[in-house]
Amino acid sequence: MSLPCGIRNYSYNTDTAIIRTKTQWVLLALFLVLIFTIPAYSSGFQLGIFNLIGITIIAIIGLNILMGYCGQLSIGHAGFMAVGAYTTAILTTTFGWPFFAAFICSGISAGLIGLLFGMPSMRVKGFYLAITTIAAQFIIIWIINHWSDVTRGSMGMGVDAASIGPLKLNSEISQFYLIIGVTVLCVLFAANLARSRVGRAFIAVRDNDLAAEVMGINVFSYKLLAFFLGCFFAGIAGSLFAQWRGNITAEDFTFSQSILYVGILIIGGLGTSVGPILGVSTMGLLLYWLLPTVVMPSVESMNILPTGFSSGLAPMIFGAIMILSLVLEPRGLAHLWSLFKVSYRLWPFSY
Amino acid sequence: MTQLLQYTVTGLSVGMVYALIALGFTLIWKSSRVANLALGQLVLISSWFTYSMLVQLKFPVWLGMICTILFAIVLGWIIERLTLRPLIGQPILSLIAVTLGLAYFLEGLVTVIWPVSIAKLPPLFPQEPVSIGTAVISQEYLWAAGISLFLFILLSLFFQFHKLGIAMRATADDQLAVQACAVPITRIFSMSWIFACIVAAIGGVLVSSIGGITNALVETGFKSFSVVILGGMDSFLGAMLAGPIIGLCENIGAGYLTGLIGPGIKDLIPFIIIIIVMLIKPYGLFGEERIERI
Fold first, then answer.
1. Is A301 exposed, middle or buried (0-12, 13-18, 19+ CB in 10 A)?
2. How distant is the Cα of B131 from the closest Cα of chain A, in angstroms?
3. To the nearest whole angstrom, how far is the Cα of A124 from the nearest Cα of chain B?
C-alpha cells in the first residue's frame, strides 16, 4: 500500500487502518454526505434506480467474496437471491414475522442452501463447479415455481414493505435510507473481511488451492465458508429486494440475471472492495436508466428493424461490454481506479 | 409396458440429439480446454439463421443447409478470433466468463434480429411416424439420431487418425510442447471453434425441425451440459453414451414421476443428474481425472 509523500506509520493500528490521512477522512465524509443526500435532488424514479443499484451492490459483494476472493465461480447467484427473497416473503406474509427477523433468516437460509450446493467444491473446481451452480439456479427456480402451496407458484408473492416499530418504510425515500444503510454496512464488512485471516485464506485458496492446503489451510471448510458468506449476502439482497418490490415471482431471478451479476463483477473488478461498487454503479446506470429510458425509445422510433428488437439491445450491449472488459482490462474498473489514484498521488510527476 | 417402450424409444432418440450438441462442447474442450457455456445460444442463433434462409428467403432445403454451414463456419471463426484468441493463457475463470458474455451477446443479437420469439421450420424429413414394436415415433427423431451417430463416428475417426485431429488432442494436453513441434495452435483453436459451431448448427437444425424454434433451445444447450458432465468432458464416446442415458432418464422419469411430483419434472431431471454426478463421480463416466501437482 503506497502512502502519500511524508506520511509514515508509527504503530500497527495506523498501519492497518483503512482510512489513513485527513484528506481521506474528509473525502469519505463528503462522499457519505453526498450519498445520504441523494433523495434531496432526485425524483422518485431515479431513487428507484438507486435502490435497485444498492440492492445489486449487496448481492455482488457476496459474489465477490465467493468468486473474487475465493475463486469459486458461481453462476447461480440469482437463484440464491431468490431463496432469500422467498424466505422473507413467506416469513413476513404467511407467518407475520417482523421484517428484520425475516431479514436475518433470509440471509441464513440462502447461506445454508449455498452450503448445500457448495458441497461439490470439495472435489471439483473451475468449470465443474460452474455447472453445479447453474444446476442450483435451475433447481431452485423450479422448486419455487412448482411448490405452489408455499410459494404460490407463478402467481408470485406479495410482500409488505419493511417497518421499524410503528414507522412503515413504504416510500422510495425511506426505502433508500434502509437500503443504503445496509449497503454501507455490507461494504464495510466485506472490506474488513478481505483483510482478515479469513480473507487471506480465501485469496490463498483462489491463487493455488493445493499450495494453500499444504500450508495448513483447510481448503474445503474455507470454500464452504465462502459459499455461506457469499450466499448470505445474496439472501439479504433478495430480502431487501422482496420488500422493496412488494411483489416477487420466480421471473425476477432468472439465469440471465445470474450471468448479469457475474458480468457486473468482472467489469467492476474481481477481488477488490471497490470493484462491486464501481461495476454496479456504472452498469446499473447503463442498464436500468440509460438504455430503457433514453436509448431504447429513440432507437425504436427510427423503425429500422421489426418492432420489439430493442429489447435485445441491452443484453447485446452488456455482453459486448463484458467481452471487451475481459479482453482489454481483465482487472476491471477497480484497476483503472487504482491507476488513477497512483497517478493522482504522484501528480505532476509521471514516476 | 407399451408406455415403457414408448418412453425408451423417444428417450433414446432425443438423447442422441443432446449427445450431438454435447459433441460440440467436447470438441472445444478437447482441443483448447475452454468450457463453452454459450452452447445453447450457438444452437439458437444457427436455428434462427436456418429459419431466415428457408422461410424468409425461401431457399430450397439443400441451399439453406449449405448457407447454414457457411454461417456456422464464419461464426465460429469470428468468435474465436475476437473473443478467445486474446485470452489465450488467461485463467480458467476468464475463459468461462467470456463464453458467458458471448451467451449474453448472442441472445441479445437473436432478439434484435428476430424479435418474434417463436417460429417453425418447414419439415425437413418425411413426416409419417414409424412404429417400433408397439411404440410409435416420428421419423424426424430417427433421422436426428442417425445423423448424430454418423457425426460421432466421423469426429471420432477424425480425432483418432487425422493429422489435425491428433494436433488438436496434443494442443489440449500441452500447448507449449505442441508449439515447439511447429504446430500453429491459434489455427487449431480456430478450427475447433469452427467445427463446434458446425456441430451446434446441425444439432440446432435437427432440434428445431422437431420442436420449433423457441428460447427453449437454450435450455437444450443446458441439458447437453448434463450429458457432458455425465459422459466426461473430454470423451466423445462418453457424450455419445451419456446422451441417450440422459434422454432415457428424462423421458422415463417424466413418464412415471409426473403423477407423483407434478408437471415439469422433466426439465429438472438433467440438473439433478448433474448434482448427483458431481457428488459421486465428478469426472464422469469416461472423463480423464487430472492429477494435480504443485
1. exposed
2. 34
3. 7
Is A305 within 8 Å of B112 when comparing Cβ atoms? yes
Task: Decide: A184 and A119 in contact? Cβ < 8 Å.
Answer: no
pLDDT at A56: 92
Report residue A188 as a C-alpha cell: 464495510
**Any B CB within 8 A of A87 CB:** no
Write the pLDDT tens digit of every residue in B255-275. 787 777 767 778 888 888 888
Rounded average pLDDT over A237-253 = 86
**Nearest-angstrom CA–CA distance, A230 and A237:** 11
Residues of A in contact with B86 (CB under 8 A): 327
**pLDDT per residue over A80-136, tens digit each?**
999 999 988 888 888 888 888 888 999 999 999 999 888 888 777 778 888 888 888
Residue B91's closest chain A neighbor by CA? A126
CA of B258: which chain A residue's CA is closest?
A146
Work out the pLDDT band at A60, boundaries 50, 70, 90: very high
Tell me the C-alpha distance between B26 and A251, whole Å.
32
Cβ contacts of B185 within 8 Å, gap of 6 or more: B171, B175, B178, B179
Please name the residues in contact with B186: beta carbons below 8 A apart, sequence gap of 6 or more.
Answer: B85, B88
A316 and B86: CB-CB below 8 Å? no
Binding-face residues of A in 286-325 toward B, CB within 8 A: 305-320, 322-323
Please state, in angstroms and as integers, the Cα–Cα distance from residue B181 to each residue in A301, B160, B172, B185, following that order.
57, 19, 14, 10
Chain A residue with the nearest C-alpha to that of B96: A127
Smallest CA–CA separation between A159 and chain B, in Å? 26
**ipTM score assigned to the predicted complex:** 0.87
- Reported as type and span, the H/E element at residue B131 is strand B130-132
Q: What are the C-alpha distances in Å from B252 to residues B1, B18, B145?
A: 12, 16, 18
A211 touches chain B (CB under 8 A): yes
Among A68, A3, A7, CA closest to A261: A68
